Amino acid sequence: MPEYDYLVDVRNLKTFFYTEDGVVPAVDRVSLRIKSGETLGVVGESGCGKSVTSLSIMRLIQEPPGKILEGEIFFKGENLLLKPEEEMRKIRGGDIAMIFQEPMTSLNPVYTVGDQVSEAIILHQGLSKKDAIDKVVQMFKLVGISDAERRVNSYPHQLSGGMRQRVMIAMALSCSPDLLIADEPTTALDVTIQAQILELMKELKGRLGMAIILVTHNLGVVAEMAQNIMVMYAGKVVEYASARDIFKTPQHPYSYGLLYSVPRLDRGKSKEPLLTIEGIVPNPYNMPPGCRFHPRCKFRMDICDKEEPPLTAIENSERSVACWLFIRRGKQDFLSEGVI
Amino acid sequence: MRDYVIRRLIQLVPLIIIVSVLIYGIIDLAPGDPLEQLLLDPDFTMEDLARLEQIYGVGGPFPERWAKWFWRLIRYQDLGVARFHPYPVWDLIVERVPITLRLSILAMSVSLLVAVPLGIFSAKRQYSSWDNFFTGLAFMGRSMPTFWFGIMLILIFGIYLGGTPLELPMGNLTSIIFTEGVPWITLQLDAAKHLILPVLVLGLAGMTGWTRYVRSTLLEVLRMDYIRTARAKGLSERVVIWKHAIRNVLIPLITLVALALPGLFAGAIITETIFAIPGMGRLIFSAVISKDFSLAVGALTFLCFLTIASNLLADILYAVVDPRVRYR
């Protein structure tokens, strides 16, 4: 057995961006843990820090303007933030691989897909060019690219969006990573292709057994794939729970709003309108004091704009929530209270 | 790829005809007539004029004159006779082109050799003091008039450094002191020394402009998603830049560089005048100043053909480096 409990253990990660217009606290004291083979869903609106969190783990934050200020990122028990760039490069694409949101622009237009996928294999596994291409063909077959032998010689523009995302997945999985970070892997694809790609990821996860961080704003996606879900808002973790718990009894008003703003089949033929979270995401240059969600919160109390609620564990569970309402009154049941 | 080139070549035919009509027409519109000045000679009669008009095919309505001129050009490579040189225009151009071409290609190569590494260097250290230094230098070079830069170089390397080993010979293509039996290498060295300053002057614009271009394009490319993908694969920064980024920077640069060739020929007018080099630039300049009709039309036609050829070259190179164009 390995000498670590969690494959990934991020503690108090703080990544800020220093721009001409001011400082953006994109990720502010975020912690997360993933065991080997687990899937963690990271959910939130655009700009809440989901992508920056995943790029921080890869240490791919552009510096400047970005900077990882504080925190620790333990991967297999070793702090990635202390590693020299050279060792980090061995981890990138090898132990930790990443799939991005935009399959249309994530591949270099001037090289064949075979060349681009084989690059990682040659680098991390030391295969010859020819063996690497054979491996690429294998990987292409694995991810369901038909006519794989011919497709390795295709240029990205000759492939459809779904095919390109399959190429990206093949690239990410080609070196059998222990952790796959999928940053909105299906957002740019149309619905049928989305379903195919998710099905593929699920199947491959079962077969290869890697852990996944699935970054998305699509709740349906995480419901199907993730064991645990982390809800982020404006650079902060607001709630952390198992997928079951969060869908049944969300504890943070934001998670609740997020969940009930999408139509669900299991809620029957309700005639009631969907819930909306009023207001807009705060200006990142000027975050509200106290709880960052308070200007939009229906349950706002006096303390909310004065002091920031700490992420508090819920007794007898792995859940935690950062909300004064919970701290003051204990577990909420928004559903039966019927607050809409 | 072959079909692509053939298609492009066929497209050139109407273009060449239109361009030659325009050039012939513009020079034709200029006041004066190629033979008119001969009338200043008291021994020259109107009968002589009619006879010469017949010989040169310059009389008659414009379409007829143009058609005759164009036919002679493509059938016999005959562009007429230059008035102030006792030679056919064609021969004059053929003799001068290699000189300017060598100068231009050298200037272009030097520009690229400076611009690409310097642009990359600056982009990798955006806003550093080195970057700022080269930015300042580039703007200075860009704003400096070519003739002034040339004169300053002559002053420094011809006069201030005169007598030192750094002195460079000025004017023409070679020194004229050589007699028989001088070793080949000495001759080459002498020719090379004569080229240093003209190449620098002619290449200055490209050097400064392209450095900025490479810098800004690379910065743009480095923000692309596929660069992030390349980094996420664990590739080293060297491979990311020299494999994944540089090719995408070169694609737009190729157009720029290929299209600069005619511009260099035009720019050579100043450089060749300053350094007294008998190239195309000076030929065109003297033809226009002295109203040498045949020579001006011939030389301008050549420049236009060069532009068209550069365009074609750019398109073909584009297809070579960019697979998206290749397969269309």
TrEMBL record, chain A:
It is found in: Cell membrane. The keyword Transport applies. Its main location: membrane. This is Oligopeptide transport ATP-binding protein OppD. Signal peptide: none annotated. SUPFAM superfamilies: P-loop containing nucleoside triphosphate hydrolases (SSF52540). Residues 10-259 form the ABC transporter domain. It comes from Psychracetigena formicireducens. GO terms for molecular function: ATP binding; ATP hydrolysis activity. It is a peripheral membrane protein. PROSITE patterns: ABC_TRANSPORTER_1, ABC_TRANSPORTER_2. The keyword Transport applies. The gene is oppD_1. GO terms for cellular component: plasma membrane.
UniProtKB/TrEMBL annotation, chain B:
One of its GO terms (cellular component) is plasma membrane. The keyword Acetylation does not apply. It is found in: Cell membrane. Keywords: Cell membrane, Membrane, Transmembrane, Transmembrane helix, Transport. It holds the Pfam family BPD_transp_1. One of its GO terms (biological process) is transmembrane transport. It is a multi-pass membrane protein. InterPro entries: MetI-like (IPR000515), MetI-like_sf (IPR035906). The chain crosses the membrane at residues 12-30, 99-123, 144-163, 195-214, 249-277, 297-321. Coiled coil: none annotated. It comes from the Bacteria. Residues 97-314 form the ABC transmembrane type-1 domain. Belongs to the binding-protein-dependent transport system permease family. This is Dipeptide transport system permease protein DppB. It comes from Psychracetigena formicireducens. The lineage of its organism: Bacteria, Bacillati, Candidatus Lithacetigenota, Candidatus Psychracetigena.
